[in-house]
Specification:
The structure is a homotrimer of 338-residue chains. Chain A is of the alpha+beta class and 338 residues long. In chain A, 23% of the residues lie in helices and 33% in strands. In chain A, the strands form three sheets. The first copy, chain A, has a seven-stranded antiparallel sheet with strand order 11-17-16-15-14-13-12, with helices on one face. In chain A, strand 16 (242-254) and strand 17 (257-266) form a beta hairpin. In chain A, helix 1 (145-153) runs antiparallel to helix 6 (317-337). Chain A is globular and about 75 Å long.
Chain lengths: 338, 338, 338
Amino acid sequence: MFLKNAWYVAAWSHEIKRELVPRWIAGEPLVLYRTEAGQAVALEDRCPHRRAALSLGRLVGDGVQCGYHGVTLDSSGVCVKIPGQERIPPTMKARSYRVVEKWQWVWVWLGEPEAADEALIPDFRWNSEPGWVYTGGTIDVKANYQLLTDNLLDLTHETYVHAKTIGNRAVIETPMSCEVQGNEVHLQRIMPNTPPPPLFAKVRGTDAPIDRWQVIRFQVPANISIDARAYPPGTQDMTHALRWFSINSITPVDATTSRYYWTITRCFAQDDTALTDLIHKAILATFMEDVVVIEAQQVRIQTDRADKQEVGIRADAGALGARRILERLIRQETEQAI
Amino acid sequence: MFLKNAWYVAAWSHEIKRELVPRWIAGEPLVLYRTEAGQAVALEDRCPHRRAALSLGRLVGDGVQCGYHGVTLDSSGVCVKIPGQERIPPTMKARSYRVVEKWQWVWVWLGEPEAADEALIPDFRWNSEPGWVYTGGTIDVKANYQLLTDNLLDLTHETYVHAKTIGNRAVIETPMSCEVQGNEVHLQRIMPNTPPPPLFAKVRGTDAPIDRWQVIRFQVPANISIDARAYPPGTQDMTHALRWFSINSITPVDATTSRYYWTITRCFAQDDTALTDLIHKAILATFMEDVVVIEAQQVRIQTDRADKQEVGIRADAGALGARRILERLIRQETEQAI
Amino acid sequence: MFLKNAWYVAAWSHEIKRELVPRWIAGEPLVLYRTEAGQAVALEDRCPHRRAALSLGRLVGDGVQCGYHGVTLDSSGVCVKIPGQERIPPTMKARSYRVVEKWQWVWVWLGEPEAADEALIPDFRWNSEPGWVYTGGTIDVKANYQLLTDNLLDLTHETYVHAKTIGNRAVIETPMSCEVQGNEVHLQRIMPNTPPPPLFAKVRGTDAPIDRWQVIRFQVPANISIDARAYPPGTQDMTHALRWFSINSITPVDATTSRYYWTITRCFAQDDTALTDLIHKAILATFMEDVVVIEAQQVRIQTDRADKQEVGIRADAGALGARRILERLIRQETEQAI
């Protein structure tokens, strides 16, 4: 089950141009493109005529001409032309989705357009903030999107999965605070005077101890920002700190596949492209370690008894909090629909 | 659902020799071969003993010996030998199918053999007519067979899908007449004094205007002939005309895959093998353009709500007429079976 | 359906070392490894915490540390460590399986460990018997495991499937005796003064006639030994005989895939490694001939009507006897569970 009244990342802004791009979100096919004026558009990628893929058609001005029989829709999905006839049935329209571009990404609202609320787009300002520079990418994962949310909300896994880059013993040895605030989950782990994990040592050029901070924020349906900091012990001195945000948004493709959008955005050595490259490669390798674990987990969940109870531990608090919020919102949505 | 009391193309005649050929039709496995006297035979490709594939066995005279335990069936599917025992249970037989070879193809009747009526084989005489020469092939398509029928019964798609070969604006700008006659659909589009589509110009060696005719005939379950003509305007002069038939028979492999048998058969420049080659390549490329569109359409239908209503347009008349005929025949067949 | 209270081969003994090996048996994921003392261990390959694959974790002494969040289990599946907390919930344990190593193979008991009875491990002593030398392997087959049992219990198929190696007309022409004894099926075919099949002629270096014996024993759930002998006619003279056991155990991976463990173990020319190699290659080729037939059979069963009755023949006696035993045991097990 997916939350419909929510924003999902459909693409990077730079991916959407004057051409038709197909994307599946929560089991629905969408086609994205940009109008002549540069506005991003998302329509259902099914022609209302015979359900051909509109994305195999072509742009005609701000509209789309289906590549099968030439039915032409405007950017709101309303049919403006049917070859060979004057009359256009009022039902000849494709579903259109509200689209907002923010924080480098194209967000689509899967619910009714009139219910779309821009204020619900998660706060990922560091992707676009002056003084910050980001690197990032997209990863296709054969697993339910919530397994990726779970992953990011319990960073004790860094110790086991990512010992080569961002994990070490300090992460599991330090308790994390967890607070649910409305539809958000906030987690915080502060590791004072601790050895840096390998990637931090490499980026900072020293393996001197650090005060390491992880400040995590979950926003529905599957958005997680991690404010990662490393200060010289006892200082909170930003001039000698490593500080970046790990920004993550996971878009369900269907119940068992997901598209994972990520950035690392930092506020130091912004012009150092070699550093950007080093961070990009290390973080991508780190996430690919997660993908191996999570895809195997997905198989083991699918083949297990449906009523199997997992056994909880303290470190699950964030993931369970997030799951409960989403469950409640999906239940409310379903009840309203009845 | 498939019409059982109907003929389906199982193979090209030249494909069936003194060897066992497996083919799936409407979800059923068939094995085809030729007797010593040259008669084409089709049996269920499952041994009645343990359901091994008979097609993995070998021909023994006019019969088939199962390659697993040696059960031998004659060309009517009746068991004539069981290794190690004298007694042959009367139930030891494989289903046999009525087979007729006509118009270069091997047709099998999926219903009860005694109900088989040769008069129901579609009239595709131009594949075999003296004075006509054909070229053709077989294409495997990951889509329900009716999506291919639909495609051929609404040629307005030529304008959008096939602009490089047989489509141009005239096709969508000219209305088509449509008439249902019994279990057939007849369509006709005559485009007077119109620019030729690219392939016609190439074949005729001139881009002078033509009178272009498309005379289409649908015969159940999925057979379409298109009588395509291009005359010098106002003449109906066959000596300077392009005239060919596009002959099409689509065999369902199962609900979502099909095997598409096609020919182009012409009555001009019959000995020009370079021309045959040019037409073959152009038409194959044209059909492969359809396959891309139709396979994407299949995915979008399968992932859509089951109760989704498509929105009809005038150009659908032929496709809808054919679907209604087939639906009625399948319903009658089902009711009779009860 | 699978018999749970039974031993299944999970691996060759030499495959299990100080590393984690994942194996699926009867739809369940298992992880196998060896303790420091050399004892083989099998646990459910799902962490009780979040169902990650334990096989992606690492060995810690005699236990396994999950590679996701570090939950550590001992070799009985009981949790001994949860990072970040003292308290260990008593439900935090993975299922453990009884394991016995015997006849070169690692056997696991799929039922409740306390019900495990070593006496039920099939008698495959010739894999380990002094004076005998074996060669063997593992074959993955896309078919239900019982289709492989059927195959081995009706050797008339040798005549048709294996004419290049172990089959000839004598096999089908000689009747086989069949006797059900408790949960075992015993079959015997003695072919006096018969031409040797090609592989026997090659191994013995002569195509002089032989007395050929096949003494077959089925033990639940899917274990078959074939005592194969070729004597100079009328002699039972072991000094000039070919005698080997074909030892076979088929482990269901799930309902439609299987892992087939096999050996050929002989008591002549034990030190002739060229002969071992010759036999290995010929038998592997022979079994791959079976795989082609059986995988096609599986497809034809799956696509057939569920209520289809196969037609029995005399040669089925062994296969049907074995199926009836297994059916009865599975039914008993199911009734006890209610």
